[in-house]
Every structure is written in structure tokens, then in C-alpha cells.
Amino acid sequence: MPTLPTICGIGLRAPHYRQALETCPPLGWVEVHSENFFDGGAPLAMLRRVAERWPLSLHGVGLGLGSSPRPDAGHLASLKHLVDELNPASVSEHLSFNHSASRYVNDLLPIPYTRAALDAIAGHVAETQDALRRPILLENLSSYVEFPGNEMHEGEFLAELVRITGCGILLDVNNLYVNRVNLGVDTDAVLNALPADAIGEIHLAGYTRRDGLLVDTHSQPVHPEVWDFYREAIARFGPRPTLIEWDLDIPPLETLLAEAAAAQAILEAAHELV
After folding, report:
1. Cα–Cα distances in Å, from 27 out to 7, 220, 222, 259, 264?
2. What is the pLDDT of residues 61-116, one digit of tens each?
3. What is the pTM of this model?
4. Most-buried pick from 15, 17, 154, 248 (CB within 10 A)?
5. DSSP per residue over the chain, as a string?
6. Which residues pair with 31 in a beta bridge?
């Protein structure tokens, strides 16, 4: 199974498909949303070409492993088909709730950090990994409310999922910073709880400030305080494959490359210290 290089890549979105393939810019690796390619056709043909040129990461937004029901069989089968065809370097999912037995919501909703939730979600993760025949990475979530009655914090919850299932962690630094500001999350405690060797990828993105809250919109450059937090994470865990995410108000490709170059400089400085 391939692995991601310990350099910076970008989230490749539809406005940049053609330019990326025609100009072959210096992308360390690329990540796409898995669900955009389930129906095959021209999008999948394009992605095959991308996968021939750069290491590929598949990032899911719809499986909803934090939901009460088991993973949707059709969704999981589509993901398995895509993984089998492309053999990506990484497969990841959000640790979030998005469906009940009868209804889906187009959102990434938070989960309770309880032992009961842990046991159920561990079963969903194990089922997914068994179907894909590989470990996946789980991404920490930005959240705007906390469940009452949590029995552990997010870092402890993720660490337990790693221990039980053998999955990895996709550490979204921006999400964790947003939760620190909005909810007062003790981010040092979260980072201290995470097993360093399980962190397979880091995400960076830009938030938007609305009515006193930070909203994880992926529509801005990475903010200076998030860059500082990223440096802290790299100093703590060592260099990790890093991604620049930008999903709304998508700028020219050159802007994403400049953001990736800034992250790459941090990674290279950290490599020199190792």
C-alpha cells in the first residue's frame, strides 16, 4: 500500500482539474473528496490521470462513522470500488454524525465523547477498514456545541479509537484551533493525548469570523495564529504530510501553491532539526 510523502499537498477541486493536468505544477500530493467520483464517468477518468502524476488521498465527507446506524452498505461499496481501482496513498473520513436510520443531513455534526459512543463507533470503523482492507485516518471535527455528559475529551476519544481499531488520525489543526476559541477546548490536553505515530496527515485551512464565532469555512488563507499552532504541532509530532484545504471562494491555483509553499518551508525547517 502506498503512503503519502512527508511534504505539503493541496485539496484539488473542480476549478483546477484542467489547469493541474495541463501544466503539471509542483504539487507534493493531492486530496479529493471521495464521493465526487462514485458515479464514474468523466470525473473518474480525470482522477485516474491525476493519480498517475501525484500521490493521491481520498477524503470522505459522507460515510458518517459517528452516526448510530452501521455504515451505509451502498456508500461503503462505492468507496471500496474507488479505493480498489485507484489504490490511493491515504483514505480518510470525518469523525462525525450525519444520519439516522431514516434521514441524512448534509453536514458534519459532532458526537458525544462517551464510552457507549466509543464502542459503537469503533465497530463502524472496524467494519469500514475490513471492507477496504486497509486502515483509515479519522479527522477531528470543528464544533460549535458540546454534548453534556462527555466522559472524555476529543484527544482521549481518538486515542482510544486508535488503540481499539488500529486506525490513524488526520489532525486538522484549523478545526482544533476553532474549537479552542469557540468552546474553550484545552488543545494542549488534546494534543498530549494523541499517539504521535498514529498521525498520518495534517490539514490546514482558513476560517471565517461570524458573530463572534470562528466558522470553519475553508474559504480563506490560513490565518497567522493557525500557522503558529501548526508550527507547535510539527514541533511536537515531527513533520507530517500536510494539506492545504480550500473549498469555498476558491482562488487561483497559484494562491494554493503559495500556501502549500509556506507549509513546506515549515516542514523543511523541522526536518533540519530532526
Report:
1. 9, 20, 18, 12, 11
2. 888 887 778 899 999 999 999 999 999 999 999 998 665 555 555 556 678 899 99
3. 0.94
4. 154
5. -----SSEEEE--GGGHHHHHHH----S-EEEEGGGGTT-HHHHHHHHHHHHHS-EEEEESS--TTSSSPPPHHHHHHHHHHHHHH--SEEEEE--EEE-SS-EEEEEE----SHHHHHHHHHHHHHHHHHHTS--EEE----S---TT-SS-HHHHHHHHHHHH--EEEEEHHHHHHHHHHH---HHHHHHHS-GGGEEEEEE---EEETTEEE--S-SPPPHHHHHHHHHHHHHH----EEE---SS---HHHHHHHHHHHHHHHHHHHHH-
6. 11, 57
Residue identified by cell 498521525 is 199
